[in-house]
Amino acid sequence: MKAIIYVDGKSSPPFINESEELSMLSSKDIDSLPNAIFEEIELLDVLEFSDRPEILEVAISKLRHGGKIKITGTDALQVIKNAALGVCNLEQASSFMLGGRNKLVSAHNLKEGLSSVGLNVTLVGIMGYKYVVEAQRQ
Fold it and tell me: What is the DSSP letter of 105?
C-alpha cells in the first residue's frame, strides 16, 4: 500500500499508476493514517510548506519496517547557488525560496536528518531546483 501526501494548492501533481493500491491525501490529514502500514510514502513539497516541525517524523511513523519514503521539494542551496551565479535573478530566487514556504530544505540536510533517525538513504538527486531523496526504514 502506498500513500502520497501533498500540500493543497502547492504540490506538483504526482504520477499515479492506477493499478496500485493508493491513499492520496493532504498533509493536513496525515494524522488520520494508521501507523506502520504503508510500504511506500511519497511526500510532495510537504517539508517546506508544512507548519509542523514534526511532519517528517509523523510520516516515518506511518511507514512499515522495510518500507520506503520518497521526498521531493525545492532545494534551497541550489536556488541560492544559481542566484549567486546569475543563472536566475534575486526576484526569481525569492519566488522559488519563499512562495508560501515555512521552511527551507536542502537535499544534503534532509539526507543527514533521515540517516540520523535510522533510515537508510538510497537515493539523493537534484534536477534543476528540485530534489528527490529516497530512504528505507530499517
Answer: B
Read off the pLDDT of residues 55-110 as tens digits, 9 standing for 90 and up.
999 999 999 999 999 999 999 999 999 999 999 888 888 887 888 888 889 999 99
What 3-state DSSP class applies to 98?
coil
How would you classify the pairing of strands 38-44 and 63-74? parallel
CA distances from 16 to 20, 21, 55 (A): 8, 10, 23
Label residue 67 exposed, middle or buried (CB < 10 Å: 0-12, 13-18, 19+).
Answer: buried
The helix (run of H) or strand (run of E) holding residue 121 is strand 119-127
